[in-house]
Amino acid sequence: MQKQIIISGATGNLGGEVVKKLIRLGYGLHINLRDRGIAKDFEQESISTYPADLSDADQAAKFVEDAIRKADRIDAGIFLAGGFAPGKLDQTKPEDIEKMIMMNFFTAFNLVKPLKEHFQANGGGQFLFIGARPALVASQGAASFAYTLSKSLLFQMADMINAEGKSSNITASVVVPSIIDTPTNREAMPDADFSKWISTGDMAEGISFVLSETGSKLKDTVLKLYNKA
Question: Does the pTM of the predicted model rise above 0.70?
């Protein structure tokens, strides 16, 4: 049976690569769009799109509900939505932290809650988050305090999902890049050696492995895709 997967952040650089990879593997994809005007970019038989702003818990829950109704069963959730902001602790305002936590944590949390209930009722499922190396290496997070703090919450959420989900076949994995090679990052760091970064294609390969028959057997997974950076 074709696996059915919910994906957030599908319109971004990484999201586009992940979508292409998973389509090639034959998965059925369920994607939220804040802008319905770009729905034409996802007009493929294996893709279903839904209007939803994931910062709104009710809209996120309806997205999950509608996807379940269409697919009958969702097997995994991949959470790619998020954003970045620089700034050391002494430069950070409370509203900066709130913005980063909304973008990087709540857009995932608002999907995790209804999806977890569905997984519990249907024999299990996978959650897959995108972490950040600064959340694991404090010295690298000093220049992006709010962003790093928000990403650290994803690791904590994954740990708690795994602790609670052992008896119900629910797992959470975190794929951790060093620096993803995207046009935005190249523009922000024009003098960097891009060959040391991790490509969106390699990120998509890592994500697809975690979803595979072998990868789904991994537990408490933190997959570090650092390349040479």
Answer: yes
Residue 40 domain boundaries: 4-225
- DSSP one-letter code for 46: T
Beta strands in the chain, from DSSP E residues, in sequence order: 4-8, 28-33, 47-51, 76-79, 125-130, 170-177, 180-181, 198-199, 222-225
Q: How many domains does the chain have?
A: 1
Q: Is 50 helix (H, G, I), strand (E, B) or coil?
A: strand
Q: What is the pLDDT of residues 68-84, one digit of tens each?
A: 999 999 999 999 999 99
Q: Report CA 68 to chain centroid distance, whole Å.
A: 19
Find the CATH number of the domain harbouring 179: 3.40.50.720
Task: State the Cα torsion 190-208-166-224 to the nearest 10°.
Answer: -30
DSSP 54-103: TTSHHHHHHHHHHHHHHHS---EEEE-------B-GGG--HHHHHHHHII
CB 11 within 8 A of CB 29: no
